[in-house]
């Protein structure tokens, strides 16, 4: 058995309508590349990436799911083990945005109650085809108390930042638990700080 | 070389028979069909039941089915109320044949409205459109123009919506900056910054192979409304279409679209349960298939089976896709075609498919036992390059 090369293992899940760019987001994050010619995901796919957060090596095990309804019985079985879920829509596709509510319901039904969630409005580079404004994305995220970001896998906008912010939120929770056992340890809640500068560097 | 010639001769002989000996054909195709003449396309048509064993019946069957397919296109693909051009005095108008009356129009919401159906279709059409555009991206075949475009579709005569993907292209209103300079002087700058389409539309009179595949899937979904279109069907139709559309015999290649449609429909008749969520647990459903594979693995190699079980690497992580798509996403297209020669000649479909899958796992024994969970998922989801004939021979050795 290989030596353990990480401190923590986080399981993340990517969900959302078919064709919104889940696989491209994951590919950008794991391989730092973009291709528009991905075959459609059937069932579930999988990638690993190790990041460094607050001096801890965190192994992200990321599951990429098929978007179409038919695969839900297969894909929802992965919700339970997930510690973080990224819910992706396409800013050039109204329907994919409307379905966010449906996906959130899915999360409620199948995932752990304390799962960290994040909504991503992908393809934000395609300004001339945009049909969902950033404000609407922010509004729905606020309404459900979820983090939100607009991303572009193609132009590499916010992809790394999204994964790191989600991982950090999970880390907060984990260390929150540790600190409850260790009351003397001080936990710095980064969420209150200005996020932007730190996040550019958070992933090694 | 002598052996190759002998195999070609065997195929020539069998197709010269008046009544094809199907049992013998199965034996031959099981070992792979030589890439010459129309052997493969013809073998698949017979094995899938599109053509019967009686050779004299072929001409009639083919002309009937191809005519029927053309009718499907006229009735289900062309927009409501179209007129067929270039059909001389026999030109049919859907107002007579399709029952689209004067009361029907594009804004009608009545359940009987052909226009209403037309717009409802666009929902699953959008899904098909996304998938056919990303079919076999590693080869350029599907982006090439076909030598045999569907005439009534590609000659639009100025009418929009005959090409299916035109219906689902997001329409963008063009905007303009209006500058007023002094009295009555108006300068209008049209803003044109549309991003380039990855798959540029073909010119009038031409269409790409992926457009043909799109039409096949669209018609299948229209004719099987209970099932509709499910992702992954594109991966099933892809190899069949490729075989039909690269048939060296041009008289057959010209009808690749219609022939592929009926072969695909026949194959779907056998594997449709894989694509239906409510049948997942039924006999013949995908879970049942995965369980069969799992049981076979357990009986062949308890070591690997236990190792994967301890890692909680569930069969659905890899075998769901393997089985649903008949391995079409796991190997390069020529290998897939070779695998399907064997799978289609299996009288007990899909026993041999399960054996192939089992062999794929067994052949990675050492790596699997060594690997951690993540590496094993990667290995099984991205199967390493391998000589496909070695896998097939191994599968054959599994009792």
Automatic annotation (TrEMBL), chain A:
It is a lipid-anchor. The keyword Nucleotide-binding applies. It is found in: Endomembrane system. Keywords: GTP-binding, Lipoprotein, Membrane, Nucleotide-binding, Prenylation. GO terms for cellular component: cytoplasm; endomembrane system. It comes from the Eukaryota. One of its GO terms (molecular function) is GTPase activity. CDD domains: Rab8_Rab10_Rab13_like (cd01867). Belongs to the small GTPase superfamily. Rab family. NCBIfam families: small_GTP (TIGR00231). This is Ras-related protein Rab-10. The gene is Dwil\GK25049.
TrEMBL record, chain B:
One of its GO terms (biological process) is intracellular protein transport. SUPFAM superfamilies: Ypt/Rab-GAP domain of gyp1p. Residues 34-347 form the Rab-GAP TBC domain. Keywords: Cytoplasm, GTPase activation, Membrane. GO terms for molecular function: GTPase activator activity. SMART domains: TBC. Pfam families: RabGAP-TBC (PF00566). Its main location: cytoplasm. It is found in: Cytoplasm; Membrane. Transmembrane segments: none annotated. InterPro entries: Rab-GAP-TBC_dom (IPR000195), Rab-GAP_TBC_sf (IPR035969). GO terms for cellular component: cytoplasm; membrane. The keyword Iron does not apply. PANTHER family: TBC1 DOMAIN FAMILY MEMBER 13, TBC1 DOMAIN FAMILY MEMBER GTPASE-ACTIVATING PROTEIN. Interacts with RAB1A and RAB10; in a GTP-dependent manner. Acts as a GTPase-activating protein for RAB35. Together with RAB35 may be involved in regulation of insulin-induced glucose transporter SLC2A4/GLUT4 translocation to the plasma membrane in adipocytes. This is TBC1 domain family member 13. It comes from Drosophila willistoni (Fruit fly). The gene is Dwil\GK25595.
């Amino acid at each position: 058995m290989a030596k353990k090369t990480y401190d923590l293992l986080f399981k993340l899940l990517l969900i959302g309508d078919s064709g919104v760019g889940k696989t491209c987001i994951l590919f950008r994050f794991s391989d730092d590349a973009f291709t528009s010619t991905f075959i459609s995901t059937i069932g579930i796919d999988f990638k690993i990436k190790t990041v460094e957060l607050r001096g801890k090596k965190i192994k992200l095990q990321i599951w990429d799911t098929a978007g179409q309804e038919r695969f839900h019985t297969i894909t929802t079985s992965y919700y339970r083990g997930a510690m973080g879920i990224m819910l992706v829509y396409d800013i050039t596709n109204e329907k994919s945005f409307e379905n966010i509510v449906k996906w959130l319901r899915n999360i409620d039904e199948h995932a752990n109650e304390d799962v960290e969630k994040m909504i991503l409005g992908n393809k934000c580079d395609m300004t001339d085809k945009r049909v969902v404004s950033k404000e609407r994305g922010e509004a729905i995220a606020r309404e459900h108390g979820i983090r939100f970001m607009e991303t572009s896998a193609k132009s590499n906008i916010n992809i790394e930042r999204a994964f790191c912010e989600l991982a950090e939120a999970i880390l907060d929770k984990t260390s929150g638990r540790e600190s409850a056992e260790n009351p003397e340890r001080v936990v710095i809640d980064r969420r209150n700080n200005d996020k932007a500068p730190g996040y550019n560097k958070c992933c090694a | 070389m002598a052996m190759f010639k002998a195999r070609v001769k065997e195929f020539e002989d069998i197709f010269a028979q008046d009544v094809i000996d199907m049992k013998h054909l199965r034996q031959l195709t099981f070992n792979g069909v030589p890439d010459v003449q129309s052997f493969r396309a013809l073998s698949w048509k017979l094995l899938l039941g599109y053509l019967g064993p009686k050779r004299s019946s072929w001409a009639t069957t083919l002309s009937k089915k191809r005519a029927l397919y053309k009718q499907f296109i006229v009735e289900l693909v062309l927009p409501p109320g179209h007129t067929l051009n270039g059909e001389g005095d026999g030109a049919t108008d859907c107002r007579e044949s399709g029952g689209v009356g004067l009361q029907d129009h594009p804004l009608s919401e009545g359940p009987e409205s052909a226009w209403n159906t037309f717009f409802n279709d666009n929902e699953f059409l959008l899904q098909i459109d996304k998938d056919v555009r990303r079919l076999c991206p590693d080869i350029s075949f599907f982006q090439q123009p076909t030598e045999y475009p569907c005439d009534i579709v590609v000659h639009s005569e100025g009418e929009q919506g005959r090409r299916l993907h035109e219906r689902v292209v997001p329409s963008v209103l063009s905007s303009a900056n209006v500058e007023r300079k002094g009295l009555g002087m108006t300068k209008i700058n049209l803003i044109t910054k549309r991003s380039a389409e990855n798959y540029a539309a073909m010119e009038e009179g031409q269409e790409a192979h992926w457009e043909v595949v799109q039409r096949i899937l669209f018609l299948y979904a229209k004719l099987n409304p209970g099932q509709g279109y499910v992702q992954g069907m594109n991966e099933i139709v892809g190899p069949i279409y490729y075989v039909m559309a690269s048939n060296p015999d041009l008289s057959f290649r010209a009808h690749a679209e219609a022939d592929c449609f009926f072969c695909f429909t026949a194959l779907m008749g056998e594997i449709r349960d894989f694509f239906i969520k409510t049948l997942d647990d039924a006999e013949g459903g995908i879970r049942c298939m995965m369980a069969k594979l799992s049981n076979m693995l357990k009986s062949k190699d308890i070591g690997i089976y236990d190792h994967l079980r301890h890692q909680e690497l569930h069969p659905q992580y890899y075998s769901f896709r393997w089985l649903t798509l008949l391995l079409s996403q796991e190997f390069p297209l020529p290998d897939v075609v070779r695998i399907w020669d064997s799978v289609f000649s299996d009288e007990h479909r899909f026993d041999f498919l399960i054996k192939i899958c089992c062999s794929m796992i067994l052949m990675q024994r050492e790596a699997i036992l060594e690997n951690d969970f993540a590496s094993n998922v990667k290995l099984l989801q991205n199967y390493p390059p391998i000589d496909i004939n070695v896998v097939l021979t191994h599968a054959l050795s599994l009792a």
